[in-house]
């Protein structure tokens, strides 16, 4: 949640000149995304204002993955999904370099992120996620996640001796660093292109309508029901107190199934998939916790939030996913 | 340079509803200002988009000073100066509370900040600063600065024993913590309302035209030539290398004097005023250096940048201010 790369007005103007989008009128560094640097750009052409997001991809995003991410946006946009389309340069490239770092100009979408969703909004998110899964059935590019469950177990295990420094309860929740999930991990479930990070931050609303799904920089090829489990774990708990909100979880599932009914196997797997989803966020947060320089610009997120949700799904997941 | 207060979309929508500005369409936390939290807001009314800056004033800004700052904006805007006007609530207040903190909605101005000004831009800044001084001659409110030179000397002195921790050269530049400036500080120069912080960050340009003067939250009643000295110290050195740029300094002065010629006494005082201006930024940066928690969101600015400029003005200030 910070601007990492500092660009001068001149550098931004030079970047914008590569696109047929008019003259630069404003550029504001925005506190959006934790991995990249973002600016809200305004240009003027023929007397009309146009807005874009300029993203400079920092080290955490592998440049080799960008063609996948950006092609996915264009694929979804062409199918009418509420995602920002990429703006192509005058040479028809959807990616270019700034200060030697990959950068892209993408469409600005209206809408605000919801911290405290109501049932209608949770239902709308479920619908949007299922539509995303359906709209990518003919998207042929693939990307393997770098955050598979075995990797996440290893990430937690790397800090096994120090988990208690984060919180005394953390080693009790994850005595095996999550390894038991590997034994019960489902096989043979339907796969496809998944967002894999559909937190409230990454969904824009105007009222009850989803106007934008953003930040596809963890998107990959994976289990569709895992994406639903990630979204369930990200949306269905109170921001303060971390309490499960059954009505929100139900609305999310109902919205999803209104477009893409789950198979019997997917539904049965949801409790274990949700635990895996939580482990994925525990793992990166544990790693960040010990890796973030104490004077860093990034505020560390506490791994306990998703460790507690993991414990919830382990203890009460079956009930949570009953219709 | 960070969002300090986290507001939910619901809180922002409730805030916006106090104003007759249409419905909330977008809110992005922006990395602007070091002391307050800012959002770029977009609303829609009658099919047209409108943009504003929402500022939540954090502890560093004294709430008792806000009526001065906000009235000053309205005074300057009414005189056609390029400053954002404040938006008044339906109850005609230019200030309201969010989460118990004072907050204001102000006009969004187009333009970008220049890191590396050319002579025409430096001239334009000089013109804009003089126009600001002329336009406030009939502004009757006053505010005493909390960062007068005696205070700044005291702030540096509070850390006298530890200045060498910042940089071994710092105690050599300021052996007396700046106290000698008090002996030669000029008296009887023309006073008025000054911006007191007109850094490149706080001036918006479209091309060579100044489209916005922003961030008036250090504005106060003071010496007009001190404001010019602050601006000179902030604009006339290279960002990398910290080298004096004579042509930029000359253009700034020429622009200023094209609207408000300096008196003989003011011109003679510029070298000492410029040293005082530098001391003011050394003082706050020294204080921040030792006060900023190591895990803070704020990147500390190195006091050495302005210590070196202070030394420059002490050694070569007379030559620097010759026409």
Automatic annotation (TrEMBL), chains A, B:
Domain Aminoglycoside phosphotransferase span(s) in chain numbering: 27-262
InterPro entries per the UniProt record, alphabetical: Aminoglycoside_PTrfase, Homoserine_kinase_II, Kinase-like_dom_sf, Pseudomonas-type_ThrB
Catalytic reactions of this protein: L-homoserine + ATP = O-phospho-L-homoserine + ADP + H(+)
Q: What is its EC number?
A: 2.7.1.39
GO MF terms held by the record: homoserine kinase activity
| Entry annotated with the keyword DNA damage | no
Q: Which Pfam family name is an example for this entry? A: APH
Q: In which pathway does it act?
A: Amino-acid biosynthesis; L-threonine biosynthesis; L-threonine from L-aspartate: step 4/5
Keywords for the protein's UniProt record, in alphabetical order: Amino-acid biosynthesis, ATP-binding, Kinase, Nucleotide-binding, Threonine biosynthesis, Transferase
HAMAP family linked: Homoser_kinase_2
Tell me which PANTHER family the record gives.
AMINOGLYCOSIDE PHOSPHOTRANSFERASE DOMAIN-CONTAINING PROTEIN, AMINOGLYCOSIDE PHOSPHOTRANSFERASE DOMAIN-CONTAINING PROTEIN-RELATED
Family, as annotated: Belongs to the pseudomonas-type ThrB family.
The protein's name is Homoserine kinase
Gene responsible for this protein: thrB
